Structure formats: structure tokens, C-alpha cells
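Researcher: We're teaching a course module on how sequence relates to structure. For the next exercise, students receive a sequence and then see the predicted structure as C-alpha cells, so they can try to spot secondary structure elements on their own. Here is the exercise chain.
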Amino acid sequence: MKFPKIILVLAIFLFSNCGSTDPSSIAGDWSGTLNMGDQSMLLVVHIMSSAEGYVTTIESVNQAGVVETKLIRDGDYYIFTVEPLEVEYRARRSGNSMIGEFSQGSASDPNFRITRAE
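Model: And here is the predicted structure for the students to work with:
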């Protein structure tokens, strides 16, 4: 009987792809080491899809802090902002990484790179 074999093959196909993520989506965890002056710190950017767009937080691992972040898309750029802290990260995506300028007040890292966690 061929019917059960077709169902089995279809089930294997569906379950093998249920954990994969859309590579074009930016949802996920991204991290990188920020260098500003004589300080460096590990930042983890958490991006979650929602009905309204994305919910984003930036976690400063060295400072044990997490802040909610506004994310907008402007052409090729993703712009992350934390207005009360005067933080802006304006980056372009290239595959599994984003690179751009991270600034807070008058300090900046012009080549801050974050990479998608595996």
C-alpha cells in the first residue's frame, strides 16, 4: 500500500523543516564586541517578530543590563535607537552579520559588527 509511504515521506519533510529559520528575516539573537574609547563590551541584540513588526532589546553582558530598543528600516539600513540613553546603531546587513556605526552621545564605534548566533 503506497498511501502510508507518501504520508511518511511528507511527515519527514515537514518535521525536518519546522526548526529552520527564514534567512531573509532578521529575527534572532545577534552579538558583537563594542569598542568605544578604552572600553569594550559584549552586546547581544535580541530581535523577535511580532504582529506589529519587531520587538528588540539590547543586552549589555558586561553591565548586566537590558534595554528595549526601537528598530526601523530605512532603505538598506536597520536603525536601532534607545532615545533616553542617546544610543543609535545604524547598520547594513550582509548575510549573517550587520555592520555600521554605533553611537552614544558623542562617543562612537564606526565599525561595530554584530553576527547572528548559530
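Model: If you want an answer key for the exercise: The two ends are 41 Å apart (CA to CA). Residues 1-21 have pLDDT under 50 and may be disordered.
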